[in-house]
């Protein structure tokens, strides 16, 4: 894969190469935990991949808009949703979030590992995600806090923000938003090829927008 390959081609090739799926199909654990006590409403899933989170939310009664740059991932996700019997509760939208962002406001905006191809988190996307949260709604961002122990070929200039830096990037007016959680935590992850189990660090940010916002 060379640098000049467009991002959507890169991600499509990555998904197409993994015929049995890149991800487990299960919802992300933090998403499942942090949404368990929320009343279902409308949800936006940014960088939805193969749809594990969107399908989980739809099963709980959410009406989900799920977005990814990869048509291959979105087609696969839509097939999973059909099989799960929740297709009518999910709208799949293709966006390159560095260029376009889905319209509307949502009771839940979730971005689970919304890392671009170079590993970065886009401040513009994070702020657009916050802006898309409806009054009374929740913003949930889960991201890597460091590289997996087996990855040694990361760009020298790639840094992983702390949860506090992610909160600062969001620029949430304090009179409108409450930060419910901003923490690092360890997570076990298997090496994609060898299956070797390792612990890496992730970060979670959960914020709630006040009801009088907007
Ligand atoms: C690390 S994966 C996470 C997938 C899923 N949220 C999960 O946790 O399993 C990042 C996802 O973001 C998508 N993505 C990367 N760059 C994007 C962009 N510019 N616009 C929209 N989606 C993008 C990729 O196709 C991929 O599905």
Automatic annotation (TrEMBL):
<dbReference type="InterPro" id="IPR029063">
    <property type="entry name" value="SAM-dependent_MTases_sf"/>
</dbReference>
<keyword id="KW-0808">Transferase</keyword>
<keyword id="KW-0489">Methyltransferase</keyword>
<dbReference type="GO" id="GO:0032259">
    <property type="term" value="P:methylation"/>
</dbReference>
<dbReference type="GO" id="GO:0008168">
    <property type="term" value="F:methyltransferase activity"/>
</dbReference>
<keyword id="KW-0949">S-adenosyl-L-methionine</keyword>
<feature type="domain" description="Methyltransferase">
    <location>
        <begin position="44"/>
        <end position="137"/>
    </location>
</feature>
<dbReference type="Pfam" id="PF13649">
    <property type="entry name" value="Methyltransf_25"/>
</dbReference>
<protein>
    <submittedName>
        <fullName>Class I SAM-dependent methyltransferase</fullName>
    </submittedName>
</protein>
<dbReference type="InterPro" id="IPR041698">
    <property type="entry name" value="Methyltransf_25"/>
</dbReference>
């Amino acid at each position: 894969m060379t640098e000049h390959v467009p991002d959507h081609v890169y991600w499509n090739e990555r998904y197409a190469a993994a015929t049995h799926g890149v991800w487990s199909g299960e919802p992300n654990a933090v998403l499942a935990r942090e949404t368990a006590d929320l009343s279902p409403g409308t949800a936006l899933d940014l960088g939805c991949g193969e749809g594990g989170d969107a399908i989980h939310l739809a099963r709980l009664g959410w009406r989900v808009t799920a977005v990814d740059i990869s048509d291959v991932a979105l087609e696969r996700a839509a097939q999973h949703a059909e099989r799960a019997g929740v297709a009518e509760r999910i709208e799949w939208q293709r966006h390159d979030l560095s260029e376009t962002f889905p319209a509307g406001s949502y009771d839940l905006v979730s971005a689970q590992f919304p890392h671009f191809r170079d590993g970065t988190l886009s401040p513009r996307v994070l702020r657009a995600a916050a802006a898309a949260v409806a009054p009374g709604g929740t913003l949930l961002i889960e991201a890597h806090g460091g590289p997996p122990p087996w990855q040694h070929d990361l760009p020298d200039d790639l840094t992983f923000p702390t949860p506090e830096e992610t909160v600062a990037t969001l620029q949430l007016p304090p009179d409108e938003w409450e930060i419910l959680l901003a923490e690092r935590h360890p997570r076990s992850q298997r090496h994609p090829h060898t299956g070797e189990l390792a612990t890496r660090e992730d970060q979670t940010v959960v914020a709630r927008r006040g009801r009088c916002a907007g």
